[in-house]
Specification:
This protein has 3 domains: 7-60, no CATH class; 71-404, Spore Coat Polysaccharide Biosynthesis Protein SpsA, Chain A (Alpha-Beta Complex); 409-471, no CATH class. 33% of the residues lie in helices and 16% in strands. It has 15 helices and 19 strands. Strands 4-3-2-10-14-11-19 form a 7-stranded mixed sheet, with helices on both faces. A 3-stranded antiparallel sheet has the order 1-12-13, with no helix packed on it. α6 (167-176) links the parallel β3 (158-162) and β4 (187-191). α4 crosses α9 (258-266). It is globular and about 75 Å long. Bound molecules: uridine 5'-triphosphate. Residues 110-117, 124, 161, 163, 192, 216-219, 221, 247-249, 374, 402 line the site of uridine 5'-triphosphate (UTP).
Length: 471
Amino acid sequence: MIKVEDEVLQKQINLLYEYKQEHVLKWWDQLSIEEGKEFSDQICSINIPLVGELAKKHVIDYEQIIKKKELAPPEVISIPKEEKDIEKEGEAKKFGEIALKNGEVGCFLVAGGQSTRLGLNSPKGTYPIGPITKRSLYQIHVEKIKALSEKYDIRIPLYIMTSKYTHEGTIKYFETNQFFGLPSQDIRFIQQGMVPAVDRQGNMILDKKNHIFENPNGHGGTILAIRDSNALNDMKQRGIKYLFYFQVDNALLKIADPVFIGYHFLNKSQMSAKVVAKKHPEEKIGLVGYVNGKLGVIEYSELTKEEVYAKNEDGSLKFNAGSPAIHILSVSFIENIIFKGTKLKYHKAFKKIPYISEEGEIITPSEPNGYKFETFIFDLFEEAENVVLMEVNRLEEFSPLKNREGSDSPQEVKKNLTKLYASWIKKANIEVPVDKDGEILGYIETSPLFALDQEDFIQKAEGMSFQRIWR
Ligand code: UTP
């Protein structure tokens, strides 16, 4: 057993032996003082019993038991079509606007992901997605918050959850861009925790002689990140009651949508979610629904073919509440979850994880070779009372940037932004140039600082000349 003077480190080393993870110390004697210090710091930061527990439960003792699942669709507030529903929406909006004007709404942006599918070296939020201006995702989000602050004459704090992968790059990017015009005191960066991955035998993986591979602990890490930073106090001191939670890669969001906030408030909900209809029955999107009586998000891969195509009497899809991961969480609910010490469960995913060979050379595998563990924010549905699910039009609110090509690629997101802005322009009675098949010619972009939504756009565009808008 390796012996060191530092007591804390020695305890961690003892735990590595106890949980049969001592193989990570293989190169210990060969490390320089500097390398040894870096490695010791990492070892001290790892929750070794948690890794042991996850490896045992999900890998070593894992037995795939196919449990029979009873699925049921949830109740959803549909997109209003009839007069009475439009009225209800208007009522909800009033309450949401009151909360906004009272400064009770904060925003929580999760941006700690590794963007592996997109394959970026910088945080995804810095991706230049603006079809014409190349505005980044971060800029689009912050400008919407700025426009809302101006509209309601109130400060709206933005909490950005980063990870080891995105923290420094994000802060530097915001500083270089003067926080895109929001007061810097209103933007807080809070770093989420990391969790080691394991190989097929349940062993932690070295990706350097003095480094264990870890990944961010999932978007469910939000709760721990709020707990471990001073963010909760900050929210309470500012009088924030509702947190609008969103993901960095969705370019089409209605940030802090007053209708959504209003429904959350009117239903005394602790956690709410927007949902979108699937593009087609086999779309790979998580679905909100009941699993054995508990509300949650069901992975698309967990549905049987019959469930995927199951229909209601009116012919519509039975399981059709796709989750775009847009939520409102009451701050009192978050506080209670932290107080109770509720632990979100970890989900495992089989992924390609870089490792070092017996000779110490770095290898990037071409096939998945290990398990990453992550927690998911929507597992909190189980804990929440009066969950509100509100259906929205995905062309107006959901277009995530995930892949390099094909679906959810930069090209598709730019097209979707163009379609949205084109629909506003048309509503303002301005002609949008299209080709002979009706496809919009080129790209269109509107600054969130000019108009936040269609209503806003129509008002502002009135009296403007065609050329000015097409500048
Ligand atoms: P995804 O799971 O799609 O991950 O995250 P990703 O990093 O964007 O992309 P891949 O899977 O590596 O290709 C959805 C949202 O949750 C955030 C991401 O930043 C994104 O906004 N997220 C994900 C976190 O903040 N932390 C995590 O640990 C995981």
